Each structure stands twice: as structure tokens, then as C-alpha cells.
Amino acid sequence: MDGDGFIWANLIHLSYNMWGDRFAPDRQAIYVHPKQYLRCDDTLWDDIVQTTADAGMNMVIIDLGDGVQYESHPEISLCDAWSKDRLRRELVKMRELGLEPIPKLNFSAGHDPWLGEYSRMVSTSTYYAVCRDLIAEVIELFDTPRFFHLGMDEETAPIQRYNNLVIVRQYELWWHDMYFLFDEVERGGSRPWVWADYARHHPEDFVKNMPKSAVQSNWYHRADFSRDNPDVMAYHLLDEHGYDQIPAASNYRMPGNFQMTVDYFAEHFDPKHLLGIQMNVWQPTLEECRPRYEHGIEAVKQTLASLKQG
To answer: Which helix (H) or strand (E) holds 260?
Structure first.
């Protein structure tokens, strides 16, 4: 895990409109807001980028959503979205700090209010055209990144039980749309990357249909790492069937989860298909969330320090 090519990634949200106004008001206020303004404080953003590099991490995954002024579809961009020139300057800064920036657009029907009206046109010709345009534009903006994170998590009815509109693709349609997104990413020269929670609920279907070309990130944020835990078993499923994976740890529910995840993989897995490990704070980039970000980055820093000490 301490090799030069091993990925230590941090997820940063430019946009946090993966819930948006489609969620009922009984959700926490930090997740619910009118889809109008960008919730990203510049000072915290700058500090996260700098401390991510200082901690020894080498990758940032940027959840773009509607936070960029897209030329192909300006109608989905927030009124205060970043210009493409500004984002390019940020990408240069990250690379100068030794951080590899990776774009993320979550196309899960449970996390796509950032798409505006197109989130209600899933699996239509209009939807496919918009997805194609955005993927191509972002790949060009990021100078053909090594990976492109497509999200695709939690597209289930229970997860969307409070949504004003529930959209869930299943069976052949789910895979059709997944393959479409993969093809568009690969057409642009990048490698698709997705959340892997589908494997927990449909393991046989997953193994049968998911191509090895896509990087998988199973996410698990708690402390129970027993083998009978289906969330943990997904890590083993991915490994046993030869999928390249980047496990997603977090301090969202359990402060020590990142160290636990690293320890679990060090003990139980051959590093052959382990590309790296990522930290997900799961908070918007707002000053009120600064303590959670600081704690998450410090947890990674301490873990990396302990690995260097042997």
C-alpha cells in the first residue's frame, strides 16, 4: 500500500446537488436546499486541496455536478457555477501539488437532480444525448483523465422513499444505460469508475454483467468488518472475481473507519487488484462542515504516517 503507484484519494464536492429539492423536508437541512446556488466556500476548498496534498494523498475526485458552466448544456449549470477557465486553473494547481484530479458526474437516477429537467428524462434519447455531451466536454476539460467516476450508486426504491419522484432502472435497462456511459467514457480515452453497492444486492447479476474494465468502489462506513456483513463481503466478491477496486472509507458514521479499512485490506487481500483507497467525508464544501473535512484528512495523514513507520 505504500508503493508509488498506490492511490490515496480524497473526494471533494464542487456541487452537492445529488439530493437537491427532490428530497422531502424531513431530511437534514444540510442536504436539502433549492437547486439554485453553488454550495462551495472558496476558503475551505483551497484548504482542503492544500491539506490533502500535505497529508500525502495523491488524487482528488471532484464531484462536478451542476457546478461548472458547461458549454454543451449551460441550462443545467447553477447561476454561480465555476467557469471552465477557473476550473482549469484549479486543476493546474492540484497537479502542481502532486494531486491527480479525477472528474465525477453521478448519473444514478437517485443522485442526479444536478441534471435539472433531464433527471426526469432518464433513458430517453434526449437523456443519452445530454450524458454524451457532458462526458465528452468534461474529458476534454480534464485533458483526458485516467479515470472518470460515473457514480451509479443507490438507485433503489427504498433509498428514494422520500423523493418527490422515484426513478429506478432495473434488469436490462440498468445494464444498457451503464454500458452506454462506459462506452462514452472509453470513447474519450478514460477508464470508467463506479460505486459498487449494486454488487451487495445482486452479486450474481453483477459478476455476470459487470465488465472488468470498470474500476469498482464499494463503500462501507461502519465498524463491523465481519465476513457475514454483506457490505464487507462485496470487497471479497470484487477481489475473488478479479475486479480492480478502490475501497471507499469515510468518517461519516465511524471516525476510525479509514484506518479500519486499510487494516482490513492489508490483512485479507492480495494487492494485485487493489488500486488504492479513498476518503469520502460526504459533506458539502461549506465552512460549517470544516471540522469533518479536517478530521477526515487528518485520519488519512495518520494512517499514511503509520504505514511509513512500518
So the answer is: helix 257-268
